[in-house]
């Protein structure tokens, strides 16, 4: 991407029929905004993407935006490179000898602003997650490896509007609302995956009890959406194709070993930097990270949470992005901040989509 | 460090006689400012440090500041933790069976503002480097692994003052002057180490020809110094003690393999994250890094150089700091930006001070 | 505007036929980005605006963008409110007893990247300015009060591309190129208005001799345009309507008296805050401002130029915006930074479009 | 001030005996940090100031810091110039024909971290305010025009420490704690001045009911203090000298008329920019301001509260500083953000110390 409105790479693929517009079921990407409330690069990209698809699908852009999740994380701090991944599914009658990457999506009803960041919000996310798992044709929740949710949040104007109506707003600032919405989303995924029961989710757990987390949940929050958009990624024998997905929680922001471990899960070498044909097998790296809220990493003070100049999420994306890009040898890494309840406190998660190991490779590619 | 003025850890060591104030020959550290022209955390720390040493050495703080280099890099972006390393040397008659870490320092004359960032500036740095090598008792320049230089730069006020005097300022902004001063410093180190001849250094090479670089030079530039302060680190048979130093250039900002290589040079395991007794052997990690000025890393666009909100040096310190901290398993890493001519273009260098491998360890610690 | 992609207010006016899309000749506005190289709010707004007009004019958006100048300044620091002004002209046979606001536009050929920020660039701007004056039907350059130019600049990628081709880039960074492009634009306006001859414009004057300036020039620079887009505003007897325009240079960033003076030129009261019917007469306030590059305002040091955290242009827009909004009593003020050669050094200019004084008012409204 | 550690101007005054160190009772100033939790320019300045006074008063710096309030607001956004005002009082037997500026100070006991930002905190501030009024020799609270309080806040580390002890922290982030501490301080001043009763102050009012405010309270909050430091400024017949003080609330961030009004209270001309001898009468301008939390100023949206790149307080200081500096014609203005409950919601207050009008002036200077 040359800029956040640049969809020319996909346009070329559509033009050359390398990609069929009808096969596109979701888009996940990173744009070069600040990742905060006033990041309009996400809206800009969605606008351009949907206008492009409108031309190819002869369906209004605003309708498309309501059925194709387009989940963008703003912020390409440090070495990170703006990019997007287009998830496609096509019909196939190929015989399947191993589970392959499976994709499912779902949209919830619009979220009531007064409920954003509450357990009711979590319940609606859980329902959408179950719907997306079903859409993916994944039989067991154990085969789900990554659940991306895009969920709405409050702006300061919406908070003021709620207060004016006599409703206690569920957050005291836009930033606070984004965090609470992500917390509710993560707990919703945990419920959707059967890790927790909805009855377990209390409002005061959200941003309160960080022992409760889901290491397969990746939540973004933004002012530009009105309902919960869900993308589920897992492995299923009902799908064929060369791709598989794996994931691992990251224990903290410098947990290099988890990165090696997830690569090992995929049969990729887990030492030094991945190179050559092994690197080419990697198609998409998805990471969530979070500045440790206790103010220290392995006992040493960090300064991310007390910085008035750079937002904590911008700090952590840059640091974890540098680490993961160093191992992968590629800077097109999806690293999203705001990992509240998404992996261990102060840590997060990593998921990788890669081509399956093949005999050809073993034979010496 | 609890804050940039916090020298309590050293105060306690001096109080308990664990450290003799007379043995202190240099201090290298990272403070939590922004690392730019308006970063006053460096001056604050120096002020407090020198006041502390004044009490112990009965020598005025401003005199101490002119003989003990105190080289601070502002900016603890991402996971980086504010910290400082105190370099001490004590007399010893111990038999030496292997070269040990050697330390030397030097101060140049004050730098003429009109010459900051020119080849004349480089020449004065070169002379100070030679003086510091001699002070370290290092016989061969090949045994030098790291040369830290702190060098003055122009503020916008000083630039205006030069212009008012009819002198063409050697830089058009404070940021530009910092960069030029670092370039001159790096070329000065190259000359001091015999890698280049002073006649080779032309003004237009500085920030012009990035093929010319020195992968043992680490240059900081700041408004708070008036002359070039130099610290040379290397290995020498004239020194004894458990420590040694090694270094490697980094080819780019995600060059994980160079980090493994420098650890390998020190007999440390070079795969996954260092842990346990091996991690304890590491005493100091020194890194220089730089956003690739061609706008891409391994062919993928990065956004560091066109960001109006976050300074490019803040971006790169956060990313490379995350990578190195991940390998070392510790966030007390000295990562300094502004690596112009200090290592390959878009890359930089890494130097590590560690305890020498001992038989005890091999025996199964 | 609720966000940078929000053109709903104009959409409603077009829908209700309050505005005829064919009458729109230019748009000037402020969006809430950072105003720098990586401000994509300007591109986003233009994209949405042109898509809207495409629907109403049945002409492709990209063609519209090449004939309707849409000049946006990013950055609504402090109290400034995102907004845009749509300049329309309609045919009329009304008798004219006084000069009225006249509007003219012009587009130059695409600017050769190798010439951006040079005297050749200035010459092409001058030609476009003369063309726009002619388009406005303004007979004397003395009746021109404001010339807005949007002009291209280099990104770091384009700079690298030029260097790779063996061409010396006319700037060493994207920010530097933006500044040089604005300087060339301002001198181009001076030439177009006959204040200077093109032979007077030397490359070394640009960002070199700030005694040369044009207090009717307002220049924006951005990566999103390829040629010079010009809007000329003045007064002409060939036009009718209730509006007139006036302007004044601002001597420095706190030159309150110039604001009062331009209001006085328009028959508005020039003391305390404008209120009631007088405020309603004001339709558009256009300001250029600049952090004094000598580092002080009236002898007192300012910190805008040495700040690594906040861009100098963001600082100055916030401060001057606060001052002008305080006098006008409205925060919808166009304040653009980067006023190199646009008004006195360290100052800038202010232009105001207002309804002409009428007898009704004098009679006691 | 050349930088935040620069106390040379006061050093020169002390050296020349123009100021007697024993007369110094408080210092109020602006330093060029970011004004946030990680602004160390305040601590740096205090450190240097107290070291200077230690030399002159032969009293340890840390003891001096506990009896001379040194209240600094970080952040010189826009045109603001770093500066400090030294408040001195000397014995005099001069006959007094009019009330003159009176100064009083007080220090509370250290504040329990668990109570920061609660009504108990407000109560301790109120007691210190009463003590400072008494110290100032002001008989009626009506003669108090400005009460500056410096009060502690929690860092993220302190918040985590409280939580670890099982105490519910009174704030969920450092920034939140700073805001709550300022709210408690403002309500404490209101109680100290008899505007409210302590029984009226409930915890949920703080940052909850902005209809409750004190337009004579100016509160700063910072990690570098442990107790409440209070400076009271008013007029009293017990004092003599040429200076007087006046104040006005500001209704919003563009309330130009209040600035004119406070100048009028002091017999200064209240139109256009103050100049010449009248400007010389002004000695100190103290302003508190706040981004309107409802997201709009006079009905127009502002973007300060949703900006991830620039802190809202930095935005508002720049804007209001530009406005006040424009009226005063001087950029040495104390503008402090964080005006919660200090003046009307979205507004704040202005206080000015000036020389009393004299007949000489009236005779036509």
What this model shows, in words?
Four copies of one chain form a homotetramer. By secondary structure, chain A is of the alpha/beta class. The first copy, chain A, has three domains: 1-91, 2-Layer Sandwich (60s Ribosomal Protein L30, Chain: A); 93-241, Cyanuric acid hydrolase/Barbiturase, RU B (60s Ribosomal Protein L30, Chain: A), CATH 3.30.1330.180; 242-363, 60s Ribosomal Protein L30, Chain: A (2-Layer Sandwich). In chain A, 31% of the residues lie in helices and 23% in strands. Chain A is built from ten helices and 13 strands. In chain A, strand 10 (296-297) and strand 11 form a beta hairpin. In chain A, helix 4 crosses helix 6. At the C-D interface, helix 7, strand 10, strand 11 and helix 9 of C face helix 7, strand 11 and helix 9 of D.
């Amino acid at each position: 991407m040359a800029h956040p409105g640049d969809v020319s790479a996909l346009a070329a693929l559509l033009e050359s029929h390398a990609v069929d517009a009808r096969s596109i079921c979701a888009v996940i990407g990173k744009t070069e905004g600040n990742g905060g409330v006033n990041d309009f690069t996400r809206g800009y990209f969605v606008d351009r993407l949907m206008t492009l698809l409108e031309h190819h699908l002869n369906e209004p852009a605003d309708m498309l935006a309501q059925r194709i999740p387009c989940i963008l994380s703003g912020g390409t701090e440090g070495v990170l490179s703006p990019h997007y991944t287009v998830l496609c599914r096509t019909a196939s009658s190929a015989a399947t000898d191993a589970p392959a990457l499976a994709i499912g999506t779902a949209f919830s009803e619009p979220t009531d602003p007064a409920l954003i960041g509450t357990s009711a919000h979590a319940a609606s996310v859980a329902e959408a997650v179950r719907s997306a798992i079903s859409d993916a044709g994944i039989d067991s929740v154990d085969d789900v490896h990554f659940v991306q949710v895009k969920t709405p949040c409050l702006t300061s104007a919406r908070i003021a509007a709620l207060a004016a109506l006599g409703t206690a707003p569920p957050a005291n600032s836009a930033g606070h609302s984004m965090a609470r919405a992500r917390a509710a989303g993560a707990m919703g995924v945990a419920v959707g995956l059967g890790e927790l029961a909805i009855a377990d989710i209390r409002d005061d757990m959200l941003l309160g009890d960080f022992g409760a987390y889901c290491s397969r949940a990746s939540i973004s929050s933004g002012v530009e959406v009105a309902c919960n958009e869900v993308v589920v990624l897992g492995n299923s024998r009902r799908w064929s194709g060369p791709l598989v997905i794996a994931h691992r929680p990251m224990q903290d922001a410098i947990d290099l070993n988890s990165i090696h471990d997830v690569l090992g899960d995929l049969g990729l070498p887990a030492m030094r930097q991945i190179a050559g044909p092994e690197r080419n097998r990697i198609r998409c790296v998805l990471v969530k990270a979070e500045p440790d809220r206790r103010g220290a990493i392995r006992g040493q003070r960090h300064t991310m949470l007390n910085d008035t100049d750079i937002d904590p999420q911008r700090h952590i994306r840059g640091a974890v992005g540098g680490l993961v890009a160093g191992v992968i040898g590629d800077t097109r890494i999806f690293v999203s901040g705001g990992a509240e309840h998404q992996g261990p406190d102060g840590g997060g998660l990593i998921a990788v989509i890669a081509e399956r190991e093949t005999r050809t490779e073993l034979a010496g590619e």
